[in-house]
Design goal:
The chain is α+β, with helices and mostly antiparallel strands. It is about 55% helix and about 15% strand. The protein is built from 3 helices and 6 strands.
Length: about 200
């Protein structure tokens, strides 16, 4: 007969019903939940840090934008003021250069018994003053000589006339034109040679 021995501990662990079915044990579930919670906290902390960094950068960029916008607005205002002052002082300078012309005209009109030669001489001197004032302010005559090629940018043809000159050249100037700072203020009125 065989002897029965009381059950002795074996080296093999006992299998629970969870291990046999493949379900995690409560300890494993708890460890997994703790690991997930730790990972979630780490991810949350990283996301919050990134959010704080992005908010700081957004604030910095917003401040930079507002400063740049204010600087641009100030530059625009300064430019407008400078343009306004330049126009004002340019007109002031031009008017100031015309004052001697007005003085000469008034002085000429004040002479009651002037001879025709004196009137002519005074008018010539006054015209010289006027031309000088215009030139100082960059107002230049357009007075093409006969035979100069017709330039539609500076000349205005009043009529075409028969001429021995080459076609489309200036025959005569009826009224001088003027440029101001290289821009046509008034074109010269001219007659142009007709094609033969």
């Amino acid at each position: 007969m065989s002897e029965t021995t009381p059950s002795q501990p074996t080296d093999r662990p006992e299998h629970s019903s969870n291990e046999l079915t493949g379900d995690p044990t409560p300890e494993e579930l708890e460890a997994a939940q703790a690991a997930n919670a730790f990972d979630a906290q780490n991810e949350l902390a990283a996301a919050q840090a990134e959010l704080a960094t992005l908010q700081a950068k957004n604030t910095e960029l917003s401040d930079s934008y507002l400063r740049a916008k204010a600087e641009t607005e100030n530059a625009r205002r300064r430019a407008e003021d400078e343009i306004s002052k330049a126009r004002k002082f340019a007109l002031e300078s031009f008017a100031e250069s015309l004052l001697p012309v007005a003085d000469s005209l008034e002085a000429g009109l004040a002479i009651q018994d002037a001879t025709p030669d004196q009137i002519r001489e005074g008018a010539a001197a006054t015209l010289k003053q006027l031309k000088s004032a215009l030139e100082r302010n960059k107002v230049v005559e357009i007075n093409p000589a006969a035979g100069v090629k017709f330039d539609p940018h500076q000349h205005q043809a009043i009529s075409m006339v028969p001429s021995t000159q080459e076609a489309n050249t200036v025959v005569s100037v009826l009224q001088k034109g003027y440029l101001i700072a290289e821009r046509v203020l008034r074109p010269a009125l001219v007659t142009v040679a007709a094609p033969q």
